[in-house]
Amino acid sequence: MKLATWNINSLTVRLPQLLDWLAANPVDVIVLQETKQTDDKFPMAELQAAGYHAHFFGQKTYNGVALLTREGVDSSTVLKNIPGFDDEQARVIVGTVAHPDLGPVRVVGGYFPNGQAPDSDKFVYKMGWLEALNQFLKQELSTYPNLVLMGDFNIAPTDADVHDPVLWAGQIHCTPQEREHFQRLVGLGLVDAFRLFEQPPKPWSWWDYRNLAFRKNQGLRIDHILVSEALKPHVTACVIDKLPRKNERPSDHAPVIATLG
Prior knowledge:
There is one protein chain. By secondary structure, the chain is of the alpha+beta class. It has one domain (about 1-260): Endonuclease/exonuclease/phosphatase (Deoxyribonuclease I, Chain A, 4-Layer Sandwich). It is about 25% helix and about 25% strand. The protein has helices at about 10-25, 45-50, 120-145, 165-170, 175-185; strands spanning about 1-5, 30-35, 55, 65-70, 80, 90-100, 105-110, 145-150, 190, 205, 220, 225-230, 235-240, 255-260. Helix 1 links the parallel strand 1 and strand 2 (about 30-35). Helix 3 packs parallel to helix 5. The protein starts with a strand and ends with a strand.
């Protein structure tokens, strides 16, 4: 089973790129972030024609998440946003998929808040959101030992995930508070699938549109796939696909793909 996450940065603009990518990379499960469209605009017909079932949770202009699967997901297992956390922003979608050998796998797809700056109200919101996510995942893991958390975390976990750690020190995505929250997710029994394997140098998943950042390979690794301890032995690969970032009018993020044997 192949699972992927991709901040598509507008599904309206980049649907053709998504369809091309899925044709070349027929993953079993993909979660999307920043779809940036209301639910009535979601391209269900096009994705069904590509062989995918879809659950989605959108809003106008900002945010928005979707869960696409080759096999259908029981709608009764689907959650949208974090239960009990008052939030007007469409950031989380959850569903249970069936692995042919491992049984039910709980998939949590998230578009984590950006946070803007450490001294902003949006950073306070991010901290509260991360705390609520932690509590939610604690409950989910007690029910679903096979769990995958993936999405745009807007957190670079360590200096190894930053092209210039000195420049980014204390900046958003790299603050001690954000990194502590990432480690708290690890403390729940989640494992960074990407770091289970030897990776190429400078393995970024995001590059700013400005300052020729992609051409200079000046980026961050902020898109992640975390797996529960029960799934860890079954992860056979995890890679970042930089090719879509070379497209005309690309997303500023690259897809991340993990394989569960």
